[in-house]
Amino acid sequence: EEHGVTRVGLDELMPQVDLLTIHCPESPATEDLISAERIRRLKRGAYVLNLARASIVNDASGARLVFTAT
Description:
It contains three helices and two strands, in the order αβαβα. It is an alpha+beta fold. A two-stranded parallel sheet has the order 1-2. The longest helix is centred in the C-terminal third of the chain and has 11 residues, at 59-69. The radius of gyration is 12 Å and the shape is globular.
């Protein structure tokens, strides 16, 4: 813990965020990084802003994101 920040994994982070912004390069390691499973872990009303490549967010979960944000 440095500067009052605790590092957590993505799966632990998902249910805590109000706004998730995605900033990462496209690579085999980041393809489907935001999977349908991870999207289900978001709390109701959370927003996702994908500023990375489309392949980072799973296509099936993308449709759910649009629906959830409204």
